[in-house]
Amino acid sequence: EGLLDKDRRDNRSIGAHGADAILGGLPGGGPVTLLTHCNTGTLATAGYGTALGVVRALHQRGALSRVFCTETRPYNQGSRLSALELRHDGVPVTVIADSAAAAAMRLRGVHAVVVGADRVAANGDVANKIGTFQLAVAARHLGIPFYVAAPSSTCDPTLASGDLIPIEERPGTELTQLGGVLLADPEADVWNPAFDVTPHELITGGIITEWGVFAPPE
User: Fold this and answer.
1) d(CA 212, CA 180)
2) SS3 of residue 23 by DSSP
3) List 5, 10, 89, 118, catalytic entry
4) Helix (H) and strand (E) counts for the chain?
5) Which parts pass through the membrane (predicted)?
């Protein structure tokens, strides 16, 4: 129960620090449109969330215009879980295909991308749900700040860089089937990594923890 309370407090701190940083980087201070990936909310934490904690903090301040949730293929944590949570809380949310993320950044007025993390290496490289790396590349190209929200317990100082983070590979049937319905050639070769590593130089907004936001030079 103590860990439960601490996680909720930490998540609320992450949300507040992230909201301050995002609003502080915008002329006029909002309202803002965000894009997020996978699920980082109540269903993934003890409550409130990390990246979705930032979303919730902005919404509670009346400073959120909309959040775009990638569906997060192949397991659809964004469309199944994040969108469900946010609609439950009355947060304006739009589900997009993973392949529409760069277009949404360019055409739908996205001010910042905020994602979670499964592990942060000592140099700031971040492992997160597959698809995070390509979001960071697109955000860098478009000049949109890219933030990672994670508690300090996610940071692993024993790993010098993200190259040392082991990446789980999931069953190929997650891509070739959906609910037992065949979507592709069952004999097709499949590569289905569950995570990817985003190099620290692409985390242009910073890493948000319960201690504050660590900017790229830090």
Assistant:
1) 44
2) helix
3) 118
4) 7, 13
5) none
Instruction: Tokens for 30, please give them.
Output: 């909002």
Q: Catalytic annotation on 118?
A: yes
Measured distance between the N- and C-terminal CA atoms of the chain, rounded to whole angstroms: 33
For tokens 């919404």, name the residue: 59
In terms of residues, how long is the chain? 218
Q: Give the three-class secondary structure for 102.
A: helix
Per-residue pLDDT of the chain (218 residues; tens, 9 = 90+): 999 999 999 999 999 999 999 999 988 777 999 999 999 999 999 889 999 999 999 999 999 999 999 999 999 999 999 999 999 999 999 999 999 999 999 999 999 999 999 999 999 999 999 999 999 999 999 999 999 999 999 999 999 999 999 999 999 999 999 888 999 998 999 999 999 999 999 999 999 999 999 999 88
> 32-36 and 64-70 as β-strands: parallel, antiparallel, unpaired?
parallel
Fold category of 3-164+197-214 in CATH: Rossmann fold (3.40.50)
Distance of CA 193 to the CA centre of its chain: 17
Q: Cβ contacts of residue 162 below 8 Å, gap of 6+?
A: 121, 123, 125, 126, 127, 197, 198, 199, 200
Model pTM score:
0.96
